[in-house]
Amino acid sequence: MQSYTVRPAKGIRGEITVPGDKSISHRSIMLGSIARGETTVRGFLRGEDNIATLNAFRAMGVVIDDDGETLRIAGKGLRGLAEPTDVLDCGNSGTSMRLLTGLLAPQRFYSVLSGDQYLRRRPMRRVVEPLSRMGACIHGREGGEKAPLAIVGRDLKGISYTSSVASAQVKSALMLAGLYAEGETRVTEPHLSRDHSERMFRHFGADIENGPAGVVVRGGRELEGRDIIVPGDISSAAFFMVAALIVPGSELLIRGVGVNPTRTGIIDILTAMGGSLELLDQREVSGEPVADILVRSSRLKGIEIAGEVVPRAIDEFPVICVAAAVAEGRTVVREARELRVKETDRIAAMATNLRAVGVTVTETEDGMDIEGAEQIAAGTVESFGDHRIAMSMLIAGLTAVGDITVTDTECIGTSFPTFFPLLEKVAAR
Ligand code: S3P
């Protein structure tokens, strides 16, 4: 098992570019594979989660060439995928498994999805249940709640579905099924979750409408291959934003970050905490807003976080907890129950880890209270097999009184393979 020790830094300085957005990278492979003609993808994230999606489509007969810079996907059209001869292994990736469930349900073949020990513990009924209402035949452990999932492809009918959770994975699974379904598939959610699928469906020419009343996809229309440039992942940039805010003497420019408003909750939260974050050179790339982000060390204060900002920052809560740990006063997180069903239970994992380095944390069912500490203590903590827990605690180490060691750090490769070299590049000692 790998572990990594971070020493306190004297500043976070310079310029970095973070790897491509994970959500957009998954979707580019999926839509490129079922479109007609060639799709090229630049800036694709070569993390383990996205490689799992890429391998799944190769296993269904799609030719995907990778010269190290550009992916070239020879799209097969809506009905061109072939039955895979083995289980499709989604590894640690919830996005691969939930979106593929929606895409495979209407195929005219049999397929099985599985993943690692963490993914096999995560809830799948949230996609299995609405897909079943569309006519899908999907079996899984615990009555369809857990993977492995076995899918017997069937013709589907569009439904109107009101989701009880703001989940882009649920929405996207139904949208992908909706591409094949008879009639209209409509999805409504309590708050808007990330809308990369909506944007990319439109980019590929799908029959789609979206507005305050949710998203509607009409089935049967072929997609056309496109060229895609993937922006930098704001969820990866978030670790370096917090690092530069909490380590005194920092000034960091993060170039080419995706700033889709359904993902910028982290910027809103850190700004409300008193952080200095400037968006420079705002532009649009492949239908997605992009900017450079300039971050300077700031004295942070505790705030209350709940409501519509929660899904817009859902993957950033572990690192927001680190910012809260060194802020002045209490930070209150509520309506964030979804954190309990991520790669690990992120409320419990961050509470355990922050307590281990001297921070006072109270867990609630749907969030936590974090008392800002003068300084974080040195210590050893674990990743719980979760990439974002590992990286968040390593960022905490940059401003602790002594070294912080994080055990079981291999998981960082799922989303951010260049995390360590970037950290070493910008941390002044
Ligand atoms: C994702 C959606 C989110 C997020 C995940 C990626 C996506 O999950 O946490 O990392 O690409 O659609 P939920 O849909 O479960 O909120």
Question: How would you describe this protein?
Answer:
The structure is a single chain. With 429 residues, this protein is of the alpha/beta class. The chain folds into 2 domains: 3-20 and 231-428, Enolpyruvate transferase domain (UDP-n-acetylglucosamine1-carboxyvinyl-transferase, Chain); 22-217, Enolpyruvate transferase domain (UDP-n-acetylglucosamine1-carboxyvinyl-transferase, Chain), CATH 3.65.10.10. Helix content is 30%, strand content 28%. The protein has helices spanning 22-34, 48-58, 94-104, 125-133, 141-144, 168-178, 196-203, 234-246, 265-272, 317-325, 346-356, 387-397, 419-426; strands at 3-6, 11-17, 36-42, 63-66, 70-76, 88-89, 110-114, 137-140, 146-152, 160-162, 184-188, 208-211, 214-218, 227-229, 251-258, 276-285, 288-296, 304-305, 330-333, 360-364, 367-371, 379-382, 404-407, 427-428. Helix 8 packs parallel to helix 10, helix 8 (234-246) runs parallel beside helix 12 (387-397) and helix 10 packs parallel to helix 11. The protein is globular, with a radius of gyration of 21 Å. 55% of the residues are buried. Shikimate-3-phosphate (S3P) is lined by residues 23, 95, 167-169, 172, 193-194, 314-315, 338. The site of shikimate-3-phosphate (S3P) has 11 residues, from helix 6.
Task: Please give a quick description of this structure.
It contains 13 helices and 24 strands.
